[in-house]
Every structure is written in structure tokens, then in C-alpha cells.
Amino acid sequence: MKRTIVVAAVMAVAGLVGGAAGGGAAQAATTALATKPTAETSAKKKKKKTAAASAVRTASTTTTAAPAVPQLGVQLHAMWEMYWNGQTPNAMFDKHLNALAANKVQIVRVDMGWSASQPTSAAPSATSWHNQRLNTVINRIRAKGMKVFITAHQSPLWARPGTGSNTMQFPTNASSIKPWMTFMAKTYGSRIAGIEVWNEPNLAEFTGVADSNTRVKKFVAVLKAAYAGIKAGNASVPVIFGGPAQTDDVFIKQAYAAGAKGAFNVMAVHPYQGNQTKAPESTDITGKSRMTNLPAVIAAMKANGDGTKPIWWTEFGTSVHSNAGISQIWLHGVATEQISGDYMVRSFKLAAKQYPQVKVGTLYTAYRPAAGISVHQYGYRLLEADGTVKTQLKMLKAMRDSTPSR
């Protein structure tokens, strides 16, 4: 399009447009006018040349803006003990927060355990140690010019008696989460971008429910209770559907069938590749194990009257590590930080071109220490403990420098 405009404008300046069709007479008339110009014709020609030259300049300097990418988000395990000296954030916290802000991260995901925020059935208090920490975290992140959203998960033992010490379980009675959600929205709601209700509720390991049909029904009950609680505390706080692992359209369809419609403002997924050696655009297989399955999620939303709701990628990434000795394909990573960064940037650009509904993309994770976790989990980090910025985050910053965001 740009070349056509430029060429047409140049031809107009040169008097060539339509010249061939006019034949010799037209050419002779043009020659005569050129050899014996009057003051009036000279003024007209000058005006036309000026306008045409202006068109050339405008056409040659006008470029099509790159499509906007989702806002850049990063998971920060800001509530974990590794970041604290008592009730004071430590030096690593400040280094990591500074690095995220310097590399143009726009929104930070903070995971918040219900079990720590309200450890007994007594009403939660803003003065408890864990809730004071959250207050500090939110203020520190916002002070760096970044937004915050909270992922609420992990139920306290009093809400699921007799189920053991593992906090990654749904409450026995879904309604027990409502007062805590009201407290969270009322206390922090004016300073946060939303509350995500649970983490990967399609997986048994984060819900304590083995049967998939029971799992989705329990999640929807928790989602509805949380929605009511959040809106009671602060009606303006967006409620984010608990992002399922991968682009699990089947789980989302089941959630709608169980009554999820009307219980969230933002749809979320965690669009990890089931095989992370595959590029984000890969269509080698269908289903939730590929990012390109997102249209199935969008179709499910449209079928349930939620086609206009935004989608957030509340967690995804590409791990960097050797695959030697790892037989499970879902635990494979990529060989270098450069490949990982390229895949992340391409994920954002894929959303820019094909998925306008995706407003936020949240990378996992700023940092996790190596102790006690797999090489796959450790390989997701975007920062080192001392604040050194890894290649992936530098590449994402370069994307932000050159591309508008939504």
C-alpha cells in the first residue's frame, strides 16, 4: 500500500499519470504550456507540485503501527520467606523489584495463601503479620510504577477439617472462602488490578480432588462464593477465573456447564506448551497442550455469551535446561536463554496478531531458588538471586521498547 501511494504521487508530480492515454495531442499541449507558461498556469502548476510533493513526503513517512501486544506481566513470589527479614523486605526483594521495573514489566502477579492470611476461623485482620506483608508488597510494587494482581489459593485447615496439612486443597464448604474474599477486596481492592480465584484448578495437585468431574464442580462453587465475597468488599475489583494449566477448553466448558457464567470478569489460562521445545505457533497437535488451542477457549466463551470478556494469560513460560535423562515430554525445556526469550516474545506477538482478547501475559517466574525443586522449575527464572537479568527478560524489554501494548 505504501509503495502504491508513493509511486502514484511521484507520477502525479512528473505529469505522467494519464499521459499515455492522452496520446500525442495531449503531450503536445503539455509541451506547449511548458514552453510558454502564463503567470496563472505557472501558479497552478506550482501549487499542484507542492501538493504532490507533500503527498510523497506523507506517504513515505507514514508506517503501519505494529499490533499491540498484551501487557507484560511477571510472577513474583513476593510473600515467600526468601524475600523477608522479619516484616522487612530484604535486599534481594529490592533488587528483583528494581530489575522488573527497569525492564518494563507492567503488572506483577503475587500469590497469596488463604491459609496464612486467615489461619483460624476468626475474622481476618489487616494487622496480622502476613496481611501486613501483602500491604507492603502492594505498595512497593505500585511505587515502581507497576500494577498488581493477586492469586488467591491454599485453604486453611479449619476450612477443610480432617484433610491433612497440605494447603493446596479446596475448602470443604465453598462458602467459607467468602468472608476472606470480602476482606481482601475491601482492604486491598483499590490498589490491585484483580483477584484470581485459585491456581490451576483443573489439576488434582492444586485442589486435592482426584475425580475431574467433582473437581470442576468444587471449583465453580468456590469461584461463585469468591465472586460474591469480592464484590461485597469492593464491587470494582475484577474477578479473574482461576487459570487452568494450559489452554484447557474442556475444563472451561465444564465450568460453564456447572454454572461459572456470571462469576468472573476476566477469563484466564496458563498456556504452557505441553512440549516446550515446540514454538508457540506450533499446530502439530490439537488440544490444550498447545498455545494455538486458544480459539477453542474463545469459542467456549462465545457459546456462553462471554465473547467480549478479556482473557489474561496469568502464568506461562519456557524453561531452560538440558533434557538429558528426562523421559517425560512435558518436563522438557529448551537449550538456551535465547531460544526461551524468542519463544516468549513470539507468544506475545502471536497474541497481537491473532488473539485481541488477550490483554495480559504473565511470565513464570521472576525467581525461585534451586533447592528442593526440579531443574524444570528452576529453569523458568528470569532473574538470578543477585538481581542479574537473564537474556529472556532483556528480550522482553526490547519487545516493549519497540511495540505498543494493550
UniProtKB/TrEMBL annotation:
Residue ranges of domain Glycoside hydrolase family in the record: 84-339
Source domain of life: Bacteria
UniProt entry keywords in alphabetical sequence: Glycosidase, Hydrolase, Signal
Signal peptide: 1-19
InterPro entries: GH (IPR017853), Glyco_hydro_5 (IPR001547), Glycosyl_Hydrolase_39 (IPR051923)
Protein family (similarity comment): Belongs to the glycosyl hydrolase 5 (cellulase A) family.
Protein name: Glycoside hydrolase family 5 domain-containing protein
Species: Cryptosporangium minutisporangium
